[in-house]
Amino acid sequence: MNRLLIQNGILIDPSQRIFEKKDLYIEDGIVKQVEDEICEIPEGTRLVDASGCWVMPGFIDLHVHFRDPGLTYKETVETGCKAAAAGGVTTVCTMPNTKPVTDCVEVVEEILEKAGKAPYTHLLPIAAVTIGQQGKEIVDLAALKEVGICAISEDGRSVMDSGIMKEAMRRCAQLQIPIFDHCEDESLAGGCINEGEVSRELGLPGLSRDAENAMTAREILLAESTGAQLHICHVSTKESAEIIRMAKAHGVRVTAEVGPHHFALSDEDIRREPHSKYKMNPPLRTPEDVEAMKVALADGTLDAIATDHAPHSAEEKTEDLQHSLNGIIGLETSFAISKKTLVDTGILSPMQLVEKMSTRPAQILGIPKGTLSVGSCADICVAAPNETYVIDDQFYSKAKNSPFIGWKVQGRVKMTILDGRIVFQDGKITEKEDLA
To answer: Which of 128, 184, 308, 311 is the most exposed place for a label (fewest CB within 10 A)?
Structure first.
């Protein structure tokens, strides 16, 4: 029997509105006791002293790219799962832009088989909306739900045909499958760098903010019409945030996420240092947009923080801003960057941060996680909120494409527990044989 007792930590659990010192006793992967102090300790219990640390339900990242199958030179299921564990993330939702596209039962089964051999985080696959992400023929939703997808998404693009998208949403509503949407009207998209003064200064192509805003509005209207559960991915503009805010006020079934890079960085960073590490889609927006993301997180318009973890090789992320690929990694830095930018500045409380990184994502997925209540699965992140360090490039991810290398932060993940087993501790992943 596997027994674990976490002592002396500050338990932060939004599901129970707990933010106080508690002991946590775990047995065979299940939380059995949550008490001010647990004195009767069964023989053979492993003790963890969490003095000075936050003890939180493991983070749930709704939006990651593991590039597996087909693009494993960038990332694999195993390296991605290790990166997640190192960041305190105990559940990830993997996007379908693999090669082949995750659009059928066979590819989902392959991903899940690989995930079973990488016991560092729970992995929930997201399938494409259309076959091959071509925007023409809707995937077999019933079969994909049966095999274990958590949602569908066209990922790095939108389904441009409104009729096809409406039908996909109608079927999703019938089958109770969430639809995760990358909002971008391709007819309004002109490139991959933010439209505005900085782009003009540097002579770079622009991506109109209208591309995001127009598609956000369309998807919300279609979701209202069909009753689908819509989740808007990586919101980046103040207008999109306001559209979502109004939709929620009118009772539309919509949730939304934002990435740390869209509330920690702006296009002013590109002016200061024109480098591909700042290249992503949606692109970095204006300081005004950044402030709008913070307000939207604080008032509940934005429900979740998700990384859009997007690994690339060094050859694909050269210093050439114009020709390098979009995307940055984020699994191993999201807690520290979010705490620095949101909690240390008073925008969110620690409780609100955990809610955005764990409890609300679990609710969006409809899974029994994001809580440390008695009887729950023991997926846990233990972090030292006051430990100061500088982010380096020693990642478990295969990739190094992070704009946060060199940032001084306060808040380090010390331990990640998955199903009651310690999978990451003090900077090291636990070996597979020790997890058996």
So the answer is: 184
In three-state secondary structure terms, 140 is coil
For residues 300 and 435, the model is more confident at 300
pLDDT band for position 205 (50/70/90)? Answer: low
Report pTM.
Answer: 0.96
Tell me which of 2.60.40.10, 2.30.40.10, 3.40.50.1580, 3.10.20.30 is the CATH number of domain 3-55+375-435: 2.30.40.10
> Which pLDDT tens digit goes with each residue over 277-333?
999 999 999 999 999 999 999 999 999 999 999 999 999 998 788 888 999 999 999
d(CA 23, CA 36): 6
Which of 155, 308, 379, 419 is the catalytic position? 308
The span from the CA of 13 to the CA of 18, in Å, is 5
Instruction: State the Cα–Cα distance between residues 424 and 435, nearest whole angstrom.
Output: 11
Instruction: Name the 3-class secondary structure at 169.
Output: helix
The DSSP 8-state label assigned to residue 87 in this structure reads T
Enter the CATH code of domain 58-365.
3.20.20.140
Mean of all residue pLDDT scores within the chain: 94
Note if 36 is an active site residue.
no
Centroid of chain to Cα 155 = 13
- In sequence order, what are the beta bridge partners of 132? none
In this predicted structure, what is the pLDDT of residue 433?
75
* Amino acid at site 19: F
Q: Residue 4 is encoded by which pair of tokens?
A: 């674990």
Q: For the chain, give every domain's residue range.
A: 3-55+375-435, 58-365
Q: What percent of the chain is helix, strand and coil (3-state, nearest 5)? A: 30, 25, 45
What residues are paired with 382 via a beta bridge?
A: 55, 415
pLDDT tens digit string along 40-88? 899 999 999 999 999 999 999 999 999 999 999 999 999 999 999 999 9
